[in-house]
Design a protein that fits this description.
Layout lengths: L1 H21 L12 H15 L2 H28 L2 H72 L12 H7 L2 H4 L1 H4 L3 H46 L1 H10 L4 H4 L10 H18 L4 E7 L1 H6 L22 H7 L4 H12 L5 E8 L5 E9 L4 E9 L7 H6 L2 H4 L16 H8 L9 H4 L4 H6 L8 H7 L9 H33 L20 E8 L1 H5 L5 H5 L8 E9 L2 E9 L9 E7 L3 E3 L4 H11 L2 H8 L7 H23 L26 E3 L5 E3 L2
Antiparallel strand pairs: 1-2, 2-3, 3-4, 5-6, 6-7, 7-8, 8-9, 10-11
Helix pairs in contact: 2-4, 3-4, 11-21
Main location: nucleus
InterPro entries: THO_Thoc5 (IPR019163)
Subcellular location: Nucleus
């Protein structure tokens, strides 16, 4: 039946097609339309016009109807009657139509979801655009604030120029330049007039400097001419020295030193000959002094007598001769006599005087201890200018001037290991107790004399086979030049350090005029309480223990303490200056007393301040340029005072502490990073700014 119904419907369709083909010439063509797109547009418009709540109720109702029909179809199938088949088909059709309704509702919901998402994306883009505009405005505000701050903190270059006082200006400047009728009532015109007067004075000084430079060059040419003339005399001097050897005075009969023992004579020849040869090319004078008569008397005595084999006269096993000799002397007198014999010095002394171009000099006096077989030296300074201040005088003390001239050579004990046994045998103290009386037995002194206690002969001394080391000319020749150069450099450095300490001891931290522009402006902090410390006093401070444990400081260093203060803040500075200053940097240990006690162990900012002083000191050397050793310590103290100012000003800017100190230095951020670093680094930009590392 379904097939016949389909056939009956197709028959008239074919007829219509046939008639249509015959009348095609009279019917107009309908333009092609995209039905699918039309349906989509219609449903999209319908989804916008319909109420979602009503569609929701319709969806639920359709679902309930489908569920009911499915139950009815199941029930009809269980009956299996002829009438139920038609009802099942009818319910299937209705259920299918309900599925069509569900599909349409689903499409409408998809349209609504798509519309909602598009709307949400559009709104999100608009919000992002507004947020970006807000961020741009905030950035511009911050930039404008920084520019305003920079303008407010700007300091002109003329503020760094130290002008003469107003009284001196009116007194010295001509009336055409000073113009009292205008400048006394107008501060700006007064400032311009003072700057113009400063420029005129500097032009005059520049012309004078050029004139003096020309005179200096002329004098230099004259000196060079005289040096060339002196160099031409060298061959003649060599011929004279070949005819009259320098050491002949020690070997010839009837002259001083003719009866000197072999070891002493070799020592005197070694020191005198090698240093005198070097003195021809340097500002150095070599001479020999002493009692000639006493030197002749030494010929009849036993200078090589072994003190260690003498025993106490009170023992019964001593010989009769020793008993008779000591019968009239007490025990203390005998010990004193033995001490004098053991510490006996040779009557002749070699003096080496080293002079600098500025007139300062040092005299080294070499003494030979005949029974201890070591050489000692005593120093004496000859200064052109008088030194004031206890700390400065302590730096140039004769016993400390040459301490640590070479590494680990402090001269606190005798380099001859046999001396300790000799002194202990007589019940005497260690050799260091007699240094003030005999001189300092530095290792370099032994090498200048040709004595090498670190060589192969040391084993013989330890075994007791020998108690002396024979002097060698090769050892002396290899050491004299380097030692004399080191002594000259030490003298220059110590005099420069003495001048700086003398300035700092008076509380003045003033750099030379030509170096002031390389460092920050004048600090608001002040220096006071400069005093000398001993090694034991330095160790007693708890916050110095890390430096002591790590051996960053030692007994041979020079220790000072001082206080850098600003307002209620007090910074205790413990300074350790190395013996070979300025080759090795000084060590700073800081302790701040302000709103509590702060040091490197409990405050990162103080630790960074210590690192700035102890690690980045080479930056100051580069800024100071040639001759940096003459002002390095003052420059470091100037930097330390600036670091304290920055710490206090940054603390007030961040709100960590009350704003007690006004901001006088230019820095962009008071703290930066996780460690809250302070702007301790100084940059030579726009008059000088500070930043973090």
């Amino acid at each position: 039946m379904v097939k016949d119904a389909i056939t009956d419907k197709e028959a008239p369709l074919k007829k219509r097609r046939k008639t249509t083909s015959n009348a095609s010439s009279t019917i107009t063509k309908v333009p092609a339309v995209d039905i699918y797109q039309t349906v989509i547009d219609y449903e999209e418009a319908e989804a916008g016009s319909r109420d979602p709540e009503k569609d929701k109720e319709l969806f639920r109702k359709a679902c309930d109807d489908i569920r009911t029909m499915m139950d009815e179809i199941t029930e009809l199938k269980t009956k299996r009657s002829e009438d139920s088949k038609g009802e099942i088909i009818d319910r299937r059709i209705k259920a299918s139509l309900l599925f069509v309704v569900l599909k349409k509702l689903n499409r409408l919901e998809k349209f609504r979801t798509k519309t909602s998402r598009d709307t949400m994306n559009r709104v999100k883009q608009q919000v992002d655009s507004y947020h970006l505009q807000l961020q741009n405005l905030l950035y511009e505000i911050e930039h404008l604030k920084k520019e305003v701050t920079k303008c407010l903190q700007f300091k002109s270059k003329d503020e760094e120029i130290e002008l003469v006082t107003v009284e001196e200006f009116y007194k010295e400047a001509p009336a055409t330049l000073s113009r009292p009728e205008v400048t006394q009532t107008n501060p700006h015109q007064l400032k311009l007039a003072r700057l113009e007067w400063e420029l005129e004075q500097r032009k005059q000084l520049s012309a004078l400097c050029s004139k003096l430079q020309t005179a200096k060059e002329m004098v230099g040419k004259e000196i060079q001419t005289k040096k060339e003339r002196l160099d031409n005399l060298t061959p003649r001097l060599k011929s004279i020295l070949e005819v009259h050897p320098k050491g002949a005075f020690m070997k010839s009969e009837g002259e001083p030193g003719q009866c000197v023992p072999n070891v002493a004579r070799d020592f005197m020849e070694s020191v005198y000959s090698n240093t005198d040869a070097d003195s021809k090319y340097t500002l150095m004078l070599v001479s020999v002094s002493g009692d000639e008569e006493e030197a002749r008397l030494l010929k009849n005595t036993k200078n090589e007598e072994k003190i260690v084999e003498e025993s106490d006269s009170d023992q019964e096993d001593n010989s009769e001769r020793d008993k008779r000799h000591h019968r009239k002397l007490s025990r203390s007198d005998r010990l004193e006599e033995r001490k004098k014999r053991l510490l006996l010095r040779h009557p002749l002394t070699v003096h080496i005087t080293i002079k600098l171009k500025d007139g300062n000099g040092v005299q080294l006096s070499f003494h030979y201890l005949m029974n201890l077989h070591v050489v000692t030296v005593k120093t004496r300074l000859n200064l052109e200018n008088t030194v004031h201040g206890s700390s400065a005088l302590d730096l140039i003390a004769p016993s400390k001037l040459l301490s640590g001239l070479f590494a680990h050579d402090l001269g606190l004990d005798s380099p001859n290991v046999a001396n300790n046994y000799q002194l202990q045998h007589l019940g005497l103290n260690c050799f260091s107790s007699y240094i003030s009386e005999l001189g300092v037995p530095y290792i370099w002194v032994q090498r200048v004399a040709g004595l090498d206690f670190m060589g192969a002969r040391t084993a013989e001394i330890m075994d007791g086979k020998s108690d002396s080391v024979e002097p060698k000319t090769s050892v002396s020749q290899a050491s004299v030049e380097s030692v004399m150069r080191a002594v000259r450099q030490r003298l220059k450095a110590r005099i420069a350090l003495c001048k700086q300490v003398q300035t700092l001891e008076n509380g003045s931290v003033v750099l030379p005029h030509n170096q002031r522009s390389l460092f920050p402006c004048k600090s608001s902090s002040s220096l006071s309480g400069w005093q000398r410390l001993t090694w034991e006093e330095y160790q007693s401070y708890p916050h110095t223990q890390p430096f002591v444990r790590e051996e960053a400081v030692g007994r041979g260093d020079i220790f000072y303490s001082m206080v850098v203060s600003r307002g209620t803040a007090k910074l205790l500075v413990l300074l350790a200056v190395k013996c070979d200053y300025p080759c090795t940097p000084s060590v700073y240990c800081l302790h701040l007393n302000w709103n509590g006690e702060h040091h490197a162990g409990n405050n990162d900012a103080v630790r960074d301040m210590e690192r700035e002083m102890n690690v980045y000191w080479m930056e100051l050397v580069k800024d100071l340029g040639h001759g940096w050793g003459s002002s390095l310590l003052v420059a470091q103290m100037n930097k330390l005072m600036s670091c304290l100012d920055l710490y206090l000003e940054a603390a007030g800017s961040t709100g960590i502490a009350p704003a007690e100190f006004s901001r006088e230095r230019i820095f962009f951020k008071p703290v930066r990073g996780r460690n809250r670093c302070r702007p301790y680094k100084f940059l030579h930009v726009s008059g000088g700014i500070f930043t973090q590392r």
